Amino acid sequence: MKPGSLVGKSLLCMALLGVLSWSFPIEPANALSMVQDPTPVTQTDGEAKQEAKQEAKQDPIPVDDVLGGSDLGIPPSDPAALEVIARYIEAVGGQAAMSAIDDRVERFRNKKIDPTKETIMKMARFLKRTGEGALMIREEWQLPGLGLTKNNEPLNFTQVYDGEKAWVKAMGAVSPLAGKTLIVFVWDKHIDDFFVSFQENGYIATLKGDGVVLDKPCKLVELKSFAGNQVLTYAFSEEDGLLLRKAWREGQPPAVVTKEVFFADYAQIRFSDDRNRWIKTATSKKIFEDGELSLEVNYDEITLNAGVSSTVFGRPEGRSFAEFTRDRDAARAKKEAEEGKAVGDAEKPVWEKPKPKPVWEKPKPKPVPVPKPDPKLDPKPKPDLKPKPDPKPDPKPKPDPKPGFDGC
After folding, report:
1. Which residue range forms the structural domain that includes residue 58?
2. What three-state secondary structure class fits 408?
3. What average pLDDT does this structure show over 259-281?
4. N or C: which end of the chain has fewer CB within 10 A?
5. Is position 234 within any domain?
């Protein structure tokens, strides 16, 4: 990202304000007033005019002094580290070649590696400088259908930034791109090389010593943002000066992830408008997370100064998301109306309240069968063979009935 871009200016201003608020142990408002409005000194008119002439003769303050001045407490870059970076810039084509790039087109494949599967995404990236120094960007993504489209067709996404405004096109609808999503899109996009303007973007380089990467001796350079919130370590080959590895850490404790990018297969890319001019760039990258391979990037095509038109960076063709939603709802309502008309005046089924489901009841226990007596174990009682005695006679005989009135 160039400092001339809108986002670059915003980020640089916010970071500088953050540094100013940390540099002074007083309130931010007072700190800014101290920097912007120094204590006035009483001078005569002649002295003021003489001092103004002396200031006019002085050279403007260089950028390095602004970013690395002792007044802000920011140390300057290590000269030894700057020598390693300068050797790398020469190895990949030189400062003049990098500045001569007007437009750039890259086509590559990202292979996302998961424990159970691999997903390949095809990408095309278009970059072009504007007359104001900003960078226009267009990215076209093609992802597998992932079951989200009819017949599992590929998913196509397009993101465009024209230097001021940005859009995203997905599933046929176009929406504005702003906020954090826009910052993520334009961040770390360079038409030339990150190290061409790393100091202008506020990074401070320090040489951390020697190391070995991919069995090659190298020089380790640490880059730290002047806000202190980003620390990157780069390994440059001692043999040819090319970049071998980039490492950094992301996240907050305890979920901190160590990420590494390994650069390989450097190729010489000649300019389309001048075959005698070239740059060298890595055409293969491997990204590791905590030592596990996570992503592979392989470039199929890189062209420089091929005459990319500025119209490529305009708003993508397509309806806005609001129009897309409105048309989709209208089509859905029309389809429902046609289905209702096809039914005609047929009587609609009357809704009936569903019958309640039977309540489960615990089954009653079966009666326990009464065991029958076993004749062998329980024989029938024998009859009593003794004769029963006669009934006893009545000791008092009953008198005869009295004769009646009829004389009988």
Report:
1. 6-65
2. coil
3. 97
4. C
5. yes
